[in-house]
Amino acid sequence: MSRKVIKSVTNLYDKKIERLAEVPDEKLPPLKNNKELKYIGRGISRIDGYDKVSGTAVFTFDKILKNMAHARILRCPHPHAKIRKIDITKAMNIKGVIDIITKDNTEKIDWYDGDTFIFDEHLRYQGDEIACVAAENEVIASMALKKIEVEYEILSHVTDKMTAVKEDAPKLYDWGNISPDANPAKYNRGDYEQGLKNADQIIEEEYNTQFVIHNPTEVHCSTVDWNGDHLTIWDSTQGIFAVRNSVAAALKIPQNKITVIKKYMGGGFGAKLEAGKYTVMAALLAKRIGRPVRITIDRKEMNLAVGNRPDSYQRLTVGVKNDGTLTALGMTMYGAMGAHRDGAGCQWPLRSLYKCPNVKVEEYHVAINTGRSRPFRAPGHVQGTFAFESIIDMAAEKIGMDPIEFRLKNYAEVEANWEIPWTTKLLKECYKQGAEAINWKSKRNKKAGEGKGPVKRGVGMASQIWWGTGGPPAYATVKLNRDGSVHVLSGTQDIGCGTYTILAQVAAEVLEIPVERITVSLGNTDEHPYGPSSGGSMTASSVTPAVYDGALQIKAKLMSGASALLGVREDNLVYSQGVIYSKDDKNKKKSIQEVVRETHEQILVATGARNARPQGVMLNSFGAQFAEVEVNLETGKVKVLKIVAAHDIGRTINRKLLENQFHGGIIQGIGYALLEERVIDHYTGKVLTTNLHNYKMPTIKDAPEIEVIIVSEGDDQISAIGAKGIGEPAIIPTAGAIANAVYNATGVRIRTLPITPDKILNQVYNIG
Amino acid sequence: MSRKVIKSVTNLYDKKIERLAEVPDEKLPPLKNNKELKYIGRGISRIDGYDKVSGTAVFTFDKILKNMAHARILRCPHPHAKIRKIDITKAMNIKGVIDIITKDNTEKIDWYDGDTFIFDEHLRYQGDEIACVAAENEVIASMALKKIEVEYEILSHVTDKMTAVKEDAPKLYDWGNISPDANPAKYNRGDYEQGLKNADQIIEEEYNTQFVIHNPTEVHCSTVDWNGDHLTIWDSTQGIFAVRNSVAAALKIPQNKITVIKKYMGGGFGAKLEAGKYTVMAALLAKRIGRPVRITIDRKEMNLAVGNRPDSYQRLTVGVKNDGTLTALGMTMYGAMGAHRDGAGCQWPLRSLYKCPNVKVEEYHVAINTGRSRPFRAPGHVQGTFAFESIIDMAAEKIGMDPIEFRLKNYAEVEANWEIPWTTKLLKECYKQGAEAINWKSKRNKKAGEGKGPVKRGVGMASQIWWGTGGPPAYATVKLNRDGSVHVLSGTQDIGCGTYTILAQVAAEVLEIPVERITVSLGNTDEHPYGPSSGGSMTASSVTPAVYDGALQIKAKLMSGASALLGVREDNLVYSQGVIYSKDDKNKKKSIQEVVRETHEQILVATGARNARPQGVMLNSFGAQFAEVEVNLETGKVKVLKIVAAHDIGRTINRKLLENQFHGGIIQGIGYALLEERVIDHYTGKVLTTNLHNYKMPTIKDAPEIEVIIVSEGDDQISAIGAKGIGEPAIIPTAGAIANAVYNATGVRIRTLPITPDKILNQVYNIG
Questions:
Q1: What is the predicted ipTM?
Q2: What domains are defined for chain A?
Q3: CB contact under 8 A, A29 and B229
C-alpha cells in the first residue's frame, strides 16, 4: 500500500512478530560516550522550572471551569457492612445541592476487575464509597454528606491478615480472603530441602513491615466536562491513557470520546496509576446535571481509600556454608492487599539478588477490611529487601564474614530465575565505590554495639535489584520548525520527576541545538502518541528511546535533503550543530533551516517508537546503599547521618534530576524505616492515622547527608539510550541499610518496621 | 541512519528534489469511484454541530483567562498625519488603566514587510495605530483612549487611486504611490496590436468595482498569555502557523516559544490570514504588565483597518472576428491597495478563461490613504470576472452570438499562459448542465430589455476559473487506539467551513469505521503537524490527501501485522470494515483491535503528507453560474430570483458542507453585485460606512433560490483525493452573471458595482 511501510511487510510475514511499530532495518545507532555528550547527562535545570517557581503551573487541583459543580463522596464509616437503605431526601433539600448519586439511582458499573461496582451495597472497608454529592461548592457538598441517611447492616470485620487467613474469620468474598482461590502463590527452584541439608548454618527469622500510605503532595482529584458525547477529564494521574481506557470501558463509550489531560502533578508514587472511582462518579454527575464537575478527595480519604503499601509478615530461612556459600533460601510470606485484589507479594529480592540454587517461596495475598493496596514506589521490593538484606547481614555475621564479602561471594553472574545474562550488572562496582565513600573498612571495624556512652554510631548496607524497565511501547513525535526550533510530543506525563526536561535533552543531543529551542508537550490523550504510565521507573527508560528514534528520523531527513540540495552523497556529509557540511568542502553547507525551506517543507515531522525489549537477556538496575546512623540508647531515637547511594542505573540523562530522585527516594525510605505507619484499631477496624499529624512523614530535619554515586555509563543494550530508570532504586535498600546500621551501632536487631524508639528501648532494656 | 527514511536517501540524491516529505515509492492509490465510497461525498452533518448548536463552542472571542486585562487601540482619526506628540498622562490617571504603549515607550518593530512599524509616527490612514491601552475592562480602556492627547501634523491626503497616480498627488512613501517602483505590472502574450488588426469588431469598455469589507461574524481578536518566556496566543485566525511565525519574528523569539491556538472561528474570508498588529500589541502589553491580555477590535475598526477587497478601474478591450474568434484582449487596470503594499490586481480571468493568442495587461497597484487591502475570497478574480464576463457578453451580442456559444467557440483546451494541459477541465459540462437547469434556451430567447411592464425579467451567465489549489505542504497525523477508534490531528484550522468533518470522513473511508469513532483535533501549533492557512480554497484540497496518506499508512501497518499474525501473505488478505480476512478462509481473520493488541502496540500512529503538486499540468477549478433576475424599472431594485451554480471542483467530500459553501459564496456575491460598498468622503478622507447599518450586507431576504450542480467526479490527478477546493468558486462569477442578467432584463448595462437602484434608474431615465 503506502510507501512508508512497504518494506516492513515481508519482514513481518517472514519473521516472528515482536512489535508492529518496530521492524528495524537496522538497530538505532547507540549514543556517543558520556564524555562526548553535550546535553544528555548534564545537570540541566528543569525547563518547567519557571512554571513551578512562578506559581503559574496549573495542576489538576487548580483546574477551574466556568459553571463548575463540586463533588464530594460519602464513605462508609464501618470496616464491613451492607447498605440496608439510603435516604438522600434531607441532603437534596439543602440549598446548593445539585444532585446525589448512589447505587439506587445509577447503573451498576463493574470496578476492580469485577470485585465490586462503582456503588456496591456490600461495603468492605472504612472509606468504601456510598454516595457522591454535586453541589455549588465543596462546603455545601460536605454538609450534604452528613445529611445522607444510611441504614447499615454491620458485618463482622477482619483487619489483620494473620487473622483473616483463619478458617473462622469473616470473609470478604465468596472465594474467601486468600487471592486467588484460597491458595498461596508458590515458587520453587532447585531442591530447597537438600539445600538446607547442605548448609553449615541455618538462620531463620521473622520480619514484619507496616502499611504505609503514598501521601503525595497533591491529593487525588479530577475535573470533568462533557461536551455532547465527548468527555474531557483533567486528572491528577500517573497514566492518562490508563485513565482514558478505564473510564471508556466503565462508561461503555469509545476511547476517542474521552480526552484525558494532565500537565503538572504533585506526585503519585503509585497511588495514581489507575482511574479512580471518583473520576467515574464525577463523569456520571456531570452528565446528569449538564455542568462540569470537580471532585477532590481530602487527606483523610487519601489515607483511607486510595492505596497503601501492603504490610508483610515474612518468615525467612537462609542456609549457608561456613565459606559463605548460600545453599538455600526460603520464604513464607503473608501480605494484606486490603479489601480488593492487588498484589501484596515481596519475593523478588530473595529470588534474584544473589546466586542460590535452591529457593522456596510461599506467598499469601490476603483480603482484609481496609482500603486496597496499590503499587507504591518499588512495590514488593521495599518490604522484601528490608527483610532479606537484614537476614543476609545476620548470616554474614554468623559465619564471621564481612557483609560485602558475603555478598560478593554469592554474586549472581546470571539472572537466577531464568538463567539468562543481564544486559549489564555493575553491582560489584556499587559495593566498591559505596564502601569507599562511607569509609566502610574503618567504620565497620568494630563489633555490633561496641563503644561507650549512650549515643552509638554504626554503619550498615543493603543491595537493591529492580526491573530495568523500558519494556512497554512508548512513542514520541518530533517536529522541526522552519526556524530550526523543535517540538517533542508524547502521551506520557511528568509527575514531578522532570520528564519535560529529559525529553528535551535527548532531542537536543541528536539535533545539536540548545534545549531552549525545544518545547515538550506531554499529557494529552488526544494530541499525543501513546506514552506509558509513569511508574516502575519506566518513563525515562521507555520514552527517551522513542524521542531518540524520532529525532534521528528528523536528522536522517535533513541529511537526505541536504544531500540532494548540495549534490553531495550522504556519506560525504557531516552534521554539526544544526549545519550540514560537505566533508570535502566546508563551504558547501546547508543549515537545517535552509534544508526545510529549500525542500519546500513547512516542518519535518517524525514519530519515533521505543524498540522492542532485547530478547534472551534480563534487564535490571542494581545498587547498594550505605547508611551511617546514630542511635541514642537513652531516647531510642535513630538519626540517619549519611546515606551513600551507589547504583547501576544505566545512562544518566540529567544529573541534577537524578539527584532529586535519589534524595526523594532516600528520604521516603527513611520515613519507611523510622517513621511512617498506618495504624489500625483492630477492635473497631478503624484507621487511627488519617492526617499528616498522626501519620508521621519525614521532614527536611530528618534528611541526612546524601551522596549519590552512579557507577554506570549507559552502554547498556536495554535501548540505544541505555537508561534503566531511577524512580525506585533509591528507596529499595534504604530501610535495610538503616536496620543493619542500627544493629551495627547498638547490637539490637529490629525486625519490625518502623524502627521507632520504643522498639529500640524495648530490646535494649529487654522489655516486653 | 534511521530505518524509516533509509530508502529515500538515494532517491533524493539521484532525483531532482521536490518535497522532502514526499519521496513516494509509488503514488498513493486513488480513491474508488464516487458510487462505491461510503463516507466521502456523503452529506454527513458537521461533527462539531453539537458544540455550535449547544453554545459550548469556544471561539477566540470567548476566551477568558484569570486576571486578564483588556486592551483597546487608539487609532488615527485623520487620513494622513504625523504624530508631533503623544501625552498619555491623563489616560494613565484613570482608575483601572494598567498600561499604555505607544511609539515613545516601545521598540520599533517592523511590520508590513518594512513599510511601517507596529507604532509609526507617520500615520497613513484613518484607523492607523497610535497607542494601545490595557485596562481592567474594555469600558475603561475605551474611556482611556479618549484621554490620550495626540498632537498631529496634518498632511494632505489622497483616498482615490486615479488621483493618487497623478504627479502632484500627496505621496504615502518615498517611492511614491505606485507599487512597486512607480511602475505598473505588465503582461504580454502574442501580438496584441496585430490581434486588434485581425479583429472584425473591437469593443472597449470601462468598469469600476467598489471596495468591500470582509465583515466576518466574529471580529478580529486575540487573547495572549506569557508564561515565563513562552507566549500562548488564542487567535481568531485563518492561519495559526502564519500568526506564530510572524509574531515570533516580530518579537525575535524562536517559533517553539509561541503557541497559537484556534478551535472555532466566526469567519475570516481572507481578513484573518496574517498576524494582526493588535496581537503583537497585546503580547507587548502582557509582557509589561505580567497579566494575560485580551484584545478585540470592534466593528468600526474592522471596517477601517483590517482589510478590504481593493477597488478597481478596468479599461478592457476585446478584439473579435465575426465568427466569434477572439483575436485580442487588453486591460488597463488601476486598483487601490490602501496605505500599505498588497496585491490589487485582477488580470487572471482575462488571461486564462478563454483561448486568445494576443493579450496585453497593465496593472497599477496604487497606495492611497485608507486601510490596507487584503485577500478577500477569490482575490482579483471577483473584480476581474465581473468586468471581463460583462464585456464578453457584449462582444457576443455585438456579433449576434449566444453567450454560451461564444464561450464554447473560444474554449481553452490548454492553459493559455504556459500552454500546458489542465489536470481536468469540465467547464463545457458546466455550461451544459447549468443552462439546462436555468432553462437558458427558452428564457434567453428574447432581446435585452424586451417585454411589457415596469418589472422585467432576464437571465445571464458568467464563467469562473480559480486556482485548483492544494499545492502547499500539509500534514496530518492519524492515531489508531486499541479499541479501534481514531484520532486525526492537523495544524490547519476550521474557520467555519467544516474541516473537522471532512477530515473525519477521509479517515473513515480508508479505515472503514464510522465517523463517530473518529475525533479530529485542529488548530494548535504545538500539538499538531503543520497545516496550511485556511484560504484560497486550499484546506480540503491539501489536508484531505495528508489524512488519506496517514490513514493508508495505518491500514498498511494493520495489513502487515495481520499478515504476520495470521501467517497469510498480504496479497491473500482482504480488509473490510475494520476486519482483515484471509481470502482463502474467511474464518482466518483479525480485527484491527486484535492486530494492535497482539502486536504489542498501544496505538498505531502515522503522519501523512500531501503529495507534491503534479508537474507539467495546470490545476484549476471551473464553473459557470446562471442568474435569473427581476428588475423593477420604477424603483430600480434588482431582485435575484435564482442562481444556478454548475462547477467542476474535483471531488466532493461532503455534499451538505459543499452546499453551505456555495450558498455562502453566492449570497456574498449578491452583496458584491447589488449592495455592499465602502464609501469614502474624499474631501475629508474619512470612511462613511463603518457599521453594519451603513454598510449594507445581504440578509436572508436577499437570498434567491440556489441550485448547485457539481459536474466533476474527482478523478483528478491533483491528488489521490482529487478535491480542488470550493471556498472561492461560488463568489467569482456571481456579479458577472447578475450584471448580464440585469442587462438581459432591462437593456441597461451597469459597469460600476454595486448595481444599486440609482444606477439603474439613472440609465433607464438617462439621468446624470
A1: 0.92
A2: 33-59+471-609 (3.30.365.10), 63-155+217-267+272-305 (3.30.365.10)
A3: no
